[in-house]
Amino acid sequence: AKETGRNNYQFYTPAMNERALERLRLEGDLRLALEHRQFELHYQPQVDLCTGKIHGMEALIRWQHPAYGMVAPARFIGLAEETGLIVPLGAWVVRTACMQAKSWQDAGLGELRVAVNLSARQFTQKDLVKSIANVLRECGLAPHCLELELTESMLMDDVERAIGILRDLAGLGVQISVDDFGTGYSSLAYLKRLPIDVLKIDQSFVRDISIDPDDAAIVATIVSLAHSLRLQVIAEGVETAEQLEFLRDHGCDAMQGYYFSKPVPADQFEAMLRQGKCL
Ligand code: C2E
Ligand code: CA
Ligand code: CA
Ligand code: CA
To answer: What is its subcellular localisation (predicted)?
Structure first.
């Protein structure tokens, strides 16, 4: 703080005020949002490319802010991470997604698998494995129906520690997928040692798959890499029939993207399941 008079302190200067204030406001709002139940999960179908049917979904968080309306996760996940709020928020996401999956299963809508994004801070949190185990037990969801999405940087940051955590998670029986695969710095040597189940091809490679031969080659390579490591492979950001066709021709196992459906609220997702919507 800058001293302006005897007992007067000017706490911010015009240069720093605008953005810092906006951040502070959002941070304050974020703290209240969990209590005030302003978060909800949307679900985006994951479609099996052999059967053409929905076999699972990714849970994606949304913030219904009282003044700003729907706030995208890109605008608040980083802040939640920095402030530590991601820990209770992430726990809420895991619990809500598992309860939803179980309730759709119980309604006879199929053995759905739900994918949940974990943040770096959640991943290295001491009691992660215990808290996931608790949620699964309380919801009665079969562990293999929960898939945790992690990024390459989370895994490669401290590989030995990551291997330890992954082994414990694998011990519970949950599935692990590597999100945004290809955008980080995975070492193939390490990839082989990690107990993971799924590679998720980043949407930046899928986008130009039918016009850019380099992207086409990258995607084809990731699919065959995954299969030779006995991993499943799913493509995200699939928006066109051409992209879908390429992925199917190259043996990709599953896909997710606007071509099939955007992420939608739970009731709309349930309607898709009841209709038996397929490719
Ligand atoms: P992500 O995990 O890579 O999620 C995929 C993003 O791509 C989602 O954006 C989704 O709506 C969008 N998407 C899906 N299909 C298409 C498509 O065909 N075309 C295009 N252009 N985009 C598509 P969203 O929901 O805004 O989420 C952004 C990011 O926020 C996520 O990226 C994830 O990193 C993070 N996030 C979302 N929910 C959570 C959460 O519950 N916890 C944590 N830690 N992070 C979350
Ligand atoms: Ca994801
Ligand atoms: Ca992704
Ligand atoms: Ca496994």
So the answer is: Membrane
User: Which atom of ligand 1 lies nearest, measured to the CA of 236?
Assistant: 15
Nearest CA to ligand 1 atom 44: 119
How many A from CA of 200 to the centre of ligand 3? 7
Nearest Cα to Cα of residue 144 among 109, 179, 169: 169
The pair of structure tokens assigned to 44 is 């985006």
Q: What is the ipTM, given to two decimal places?
A: 0.97
Residue 131 tokens, joined: 């808290």
The answer for residues whose C-beta is within 8 angstroms of residue 58's C-beta and 6 or more apart is 43, 44, 46, 114, 115, 116, 117, 149, 256, 263
Give the mutation target among 58, 114, 117, 152 for probing the ligand 1 site: most ligand atoms within 8 A of CB: 117
Q: Is 121 exposed, middle or buried (CB count within 10 Å of its CB: 0-12, 13-18, 19+)? A: middle
The finding on whether 133 has its CB within 6 A of some atom of ligand 1 is no
Q: What is the pLDDT of residues 7-61, one digit of tens each?
A: 555 555 665 677 788 788 888 899 899 999 999 999 999 999 999 999 999 999 9
- Give the pair of three-digit tokens for residue 42: 């949307």
Query: Cα separation of 247 and 6, whole Å?
Result: 70
Distance CA 277, CA 273 (A): 6
Nearest residue by C-alpha to atom 3 in ligand 1 = 180
pLDDT bin (cut points 50, 70, 90) of residue 1 is: very low
Ligand 2 centroid, distance to 247 Cα (angstroms): 19
